[in-house]
Design goal:
three-stranded parallel sheet, alpha/beta, 14% strand, 8 helices, six-stranded mixed sheet, 9 strands
């Protein structure tokens, strides 16, 4: 019998994430057949977890369901815990997958309703809401799962980048600008390091890519910092074509993946810090 993954009709984020995890980690289940049953049911009403070729997730009250348990958890979290116990996740990725599972658990237990973003329209851009909206117009559950799996690939990448950004900031150089506003300079290939630093409260971030040599200076949108003076100073020291001044006044950019034709700056990270201090 072909390996089969069973989950409930009209799959939500937890069901989709559970299918994604099984396909990703369980041997021989990458191309498993996907079957949908009414919530709480099993395939052909058989006893759950009795056949190694059939894995039920988020339904059936088996080892990868949670609706029968009086504890805070999710199907995805139970799968991740199992994968870790069986040594199926590489040691350097265990923490990332724990964080992945925690986010799914937060969503599946509706804990996000207390988050500040839940009071704004921005919440409708969150993945769990997008899946709900997509399922409203797409009645084919296979298509919904496929859509969610692609999005979950992106979610995993962002968690990995967030982990790496945390390490980048630990090795960054802190300083102050515009009086006593916090700033940090990092050498990193990770574009997310800039965004993460701003989320952590830094009013200005300098990032220099050690591979391409390109640099970027970015100020938080809610800071009083304007970067036009800095841009003028940089374009005095180097060719103006190297530095792009964003109309917001909050970014000065030396090329990017969006425009890789711009030559890299010859200024070192320490030189950039000095110029920023003098012009911000």
């Amino acid at each position: 019998m072909k390996n089969t993954i069973v989950t409930h009709l009209r799959p939500d984020l937890d069901a989709c994430a559970s299918v994604w995890l099984v396909k990703k980690f369980f041997p021989s289940f990458e191309e498993a057949e996907l079957v949908f049953v009414p919530a709480g049911k099993t395939l052909n009403d058989e006893i759950v977890d009795t056949k190694p070729t059939i894995i039920h997730v988020d339904t059936g009250k088996g080892k990868f369901d949670h609706h029968h348990l009086p504890i805070r958890t999710s199907a995805a979290q139970r799968i991740v815990e199992y994968l870790i116990s069986e040594g199926l996740i590489k040691s350097d990725l265990i923490e990332v997958y724990k964080r992945f599972a925690e986010v799914i658990t937060i969503v599946d237990n509706f804990e996000y309703v207390s988050f500040p973003i839940a009071q704004t329209d921005s919440e409708e851009m969150m993945l769990y809401q997008i899946i709900e909206g997509y399922a409203f117009i797409e009645k084919n559950d296979f298509v919904v799962v496929d859509f969610a799996e692609r999005a979950l690939d992106g979610f995993l990448i962002m968690l990995l980048q967030r982990r790496d950004a945390e390490n980048d900031l630990k090795n960054g150089e802190e300083f102050t600008v515009h009086g006593n506003l916090k700033a940090i300079a990092v050498e990193s290939r990770n574009e997310y390091a800039t965004h993460f630093a701003q989320k952590k409260g830094y009013s200005l971030v300098i990032r220099k890519d050690p591979k391409t040599g390109r640099g970027k200076v970015k100020a938080r949108p809610d800071s009083p910092i304007k970067l036009e003076k800095l841009w003028l100073a940089l374009t005095t020291l180097e060719s103006p074509e190297k530095w792009y001044y964003h109309q917001s006044g909050k970014m000065v950019i030396n090329g990017s993946d969006k425009n890789p034709t711009i030559p890299a700056t010859s200024l070192s990270l320490q030189q950039l810090i000095k110029i920023v201090k003098e012009n911000c």
